[in-house]
Amino acid sequence: MSPPDQTTSTLIPECVRHQFGQLRFGKNLADVPSIITRRATISSPPSTPVKQYNLLSKNFTSRTNIIPTIYENKVLLECLHTKDSTAYGTIRVHNCAFDKNVFIRLSQDEWNTSINIEARHSMNYSHDNTDTFTFEINLPKSNNDKLEPKRFLFAVCLQAMWQEFWDNNQGWNYVLDVSEK
Predict the structure, then answer these.
(1) Tens-place pLDDT, residues 89-117
(2) Which of 19, 88, 93, 138 is deepest in the core (most CB within 10 A)?
(3) Does residue 165 sit within a domain?
(4) Does 79 map to a domain?
């Protein structure tokens, strides 16, 4: 499923709106008229075009009735959308401690190496004692096909109460495939 054609700043609210149906966040920036400006064209020597890639998520499906799973596992990838070369997501965690750290562990070489991407606190749900965190994964631009990853694997981690809790798609890892535009 691909998100509606909106600006990137509205994708996370769109994801949340998709999950909860009735939530509404701000105006759709796609409805705001744009200002047309003229620019002078300056000829420059031809350059090698930068290849453009898309990120695609094939194995993610939004779950229903997530609260019991969050209480049991403490952390869950709630929503994942891709737009061009960026993936946007929300992580829902059990609010089991005030001090907590939520991040994505991302690998482009089958877990030989990895990096952590911090997620930012977005919303607290006091009625079910959970919090939502958001994250963004950006694919770097490259002209070298050999350096361009074909897919990314990732898992979600909550660090709280001197413990780590993981959501790795029930052992299958979450996958973002890379395809050329």
Answers:
(1) 999 999 999 999 999 999 999 999 999 99
(2) 93
(3) yes
(4) yes
Asked whether the beta carbons of 34 and 40 are under 8 A apart, the reply is: no
Q: Give, in order, the Cα–Cα distances in Å from 33 to each of 5, 8, 12, 29, 132.
A: 15, 17, 22, 9, 32
Single pTM value for the model: 0.71
Taking CA atoms, 44 is separated from 32, 47, 52, 155, in Å, by: 33, 9, 21, 44
- In CATH, what number is assigned to the domain containing residue 78? 2.60.40.2440
